[in-house]
Specification:
- The structure is a single chain.
- The chain has helices spanning 83-90, 101-117, 135-148, 163-166, 170-173, 176-183, 190-204, 207-210, 226-239, 251-260, 266-272, 290-299, 307-312, 320-325, 345-354, 369-376, 378-383, 416-422, 450-475, 479-491; strands at 4-11, 26-31, 34-39, 49-52, 57-60, 62-67, 120-127, 151-156, 212-214, 216-219, 243-247, 280-284, 302-305, 330-332, 400-403, 429-434, 437-441, 444-445.
- By secondary structure, the chain is α/β, with parallel strands linked by helices.
- The strands form 3 sheets. Strands 1, 2, 3, 4, 5, 15, 16, 17 and 18 form a 9-stranded mixed sheet that branches.
């Protein structure tokens, strides 16, 4: 593998004692895909690629801590809607939407291009495989990540229970014919899902010199049976894989616990099953109470914060400072293209840094830029269970970005961490490196024919629009009943509030 020497770069340093957030100019050597040496005036070795840093910033690549790639082609398609209504249109399990392997490859690659252009080097993809996780579709998604040069964890976000079991109130709201339709199990049964995991792990865990690895996902605790939940945890434990679980994203999910789990929250329910652990990524965690935070802190679980999605869907505001104070590890994610409409971690960082200012009157508790950057880098590496990822430590993966400090977001340079979080949107990223390989330079990918991919995707998904419109029409019959479910959940009294109170 080619060695690379970065000469005359300034390194991001989030040490609070370092006022300007970066080191003096120095050199950094990459060897065998890892950071090998940092010093001043390193001599170039024979055959080594030398990159002149010219005093620009070298920092860890950003890590998209939570993502769903299957809807990359749907950006801008849906209005802002509450999650439970949004999901009717997001991923209906309809045969008309079954993707071809090439479609799965193209939509995944759209996300890779957008992320790598802007300096996101790693992603945790909690993949939808609707209507079923067929091996050729799993392979197509994984191959896109291989070809792009990204680092990725891939899981299968596949519920196994019926719609009536996953949501409160529907059983009594729906007319008999719809009740019968939604009482049938969705997708595929647990044994087939376990076979899909066996394929994912055998074919892709550790692929591309370790850039591509598996993870597991239950989607959410209320969407799977306890037995399948336990079997997923066993896979996670045996292979040391991150375990993704959406929990308490919405008020309705808090109500679900009150109505369907004998008053227990989904965090408490997961704890009672013995499944909260340091392998778990608890996604969203908005509607948590103090007891939930205690359980999360004791378990060592990471919380994946998705502030843009939380706003777009009206879900609420997470308790950032309370989690920080309890030592709960945090990472930050985009969630998905149609719940953010961009796949831009800089935008997510900015929102994370300011939205909590509305939920806490004590301004000394508001997020600091250094905390947000840490969550988007080292916090993501911890969530991925990759030691050193997201840092500039010797021996860490060489997943790096170079940022132009002469670009407008940094002129004048007053405070680097704050300007990275509040001023930058990815336009100043000069170079993106993953595992020691340069995968993007000045906004263009190095390892694929980006123009050809974009042209093919544009034509392909234009031809898919009619099928997507047809799918929308097929699910609209459920809309009045889901609205009533949402209304009832909003009217139910709860001892906590994570958004503006319902005036009703």
């Amino acid at each position: 593998m080619t060695q690379t020497l970065f000469r005359g770069v300034r390194l991001l340093d989030l040490d609070l004692d370092l006022k300007d957030g970066m080191t003096a100019a120095c050199d950094l050597r990459v060897s065998n895909g890892r950071i090998a040496e940092i010093a001043k005036d390193l001599s170039a070795q024979p055959g080594e690629k030398v990159i002149e840093g010219a005093g620009n910033l070298l920092m860890p690549g950003l890590i998209n801590g939570h993502f769903h790639s299957a809807v990359n082609h749907m950006k801008g398609r849906l209005p802002s809607l509450p999650l439970e209504i949004f999901m009717l249109y997001e991923c209906p399990e309809l045969e008309v939407l079954r993707p071809t392997p090439r479609e799965a490859y193209l939509r995944t690659m759209l996300g890779c291009i957008e992320m790598l252009r802007g300096g996101t080097t790693s992603v945790q993809d909690d993949c939808f495989f609707v209507p079923s996780p067929d091996p050729d579709i799993i392979d197509a998604v994984a191959q896109a990540y291989v070809d792009s040069g990204m680092r990725a964890r891939l899981a299968l976000d596949q519920p196994e229970l019926s719609e009536l079991e996953k949501l409160p109130y529907l059983r009594e709201i729906l007319p008999p014919d719809m009740r019968a339709q939604l009482s049938a199990p969705q997708g595929v049964a647990a044994p087939a899902l376990l076979e899909s995991y066996a394929h994912l792990i055998a074919a892709w865990h550790g692929a591309a010199d370790g850039r591509i690895k598996a993870a597991v996902s239950c989607s959410a605790p209320q969407r799977v049976s306890p037995d399948y939940f336990l079997q997923l945890d066993d896979i996670s434990l045996r292979h040391d894989l991150p375990f993704y679980a959406h929990m308490l994203e919405t008020r309705l999910q808090r109500v679900y616990g009150e109505e369907c789990l004998q008053g227990r929250s989904l965090v408490q329910y997961t704890h009672d099953l013995g499944l909260l652990s340091d392998r778990m990524n608890v996604i969203h965690a908005i509607w948590v109470d103090d007891a939930d935070i205690d359980l999360l802190a004791a378990s060592g679980a990471t919380v994946a914060h998705n502030p843009n999605s939380n706003l777009r869907l009206g879900s609420g505001i997470m308790r950032w400072r309370d989690m920080q104070d309890r030592g709960i590890p945090l990472c930050i994610g985009v969630d998905e293209a149609i719940a953010d409409d961009a796949i831009n971690m800089w935008s997510v960082m900015k929102t994370a840094s300011v939205i909590h200012n509305l939920s806490d009157w004590d301004y000394t508790r508001w997020p600091q830029a250094t905390e947000v950057i840490h969550a988007a880098t080292a916090g993501g590496g911890q969530a991925m269970r990759e030691p050193g990822l997201g840092t500039l430590d010797i021996g860490a993966h060489a997943d790096l970005i170079m940022v132009d400090l002469t670009a407008l977001p940094f002129v004048p340079l007053n405070n680097l961490p704050r300007q990275l979080v509040h001023c930058e949107f990815g336009q100043s990223v000069l170079m993106t490196m993953v595992a020691g390989n340069i995968v993007a330079e000045r906004g263009h990918l190095s390892m694929i024919d980006e123009a050809a991919i974009l042209a093919e995707a544009s034509a392909f998904f234009a031809g898919k629009k009619q099928a997507m419109d047809m799918a929308d029409k097929q699910v609209e019959k459920y809309l009045p009943h889901y609205r009533e479910m949402y209304r009832r959940a909003g009217a139910r009294s709860l001892p906590l509030e994570r958004r503006l109170p319902n005036p009703a």
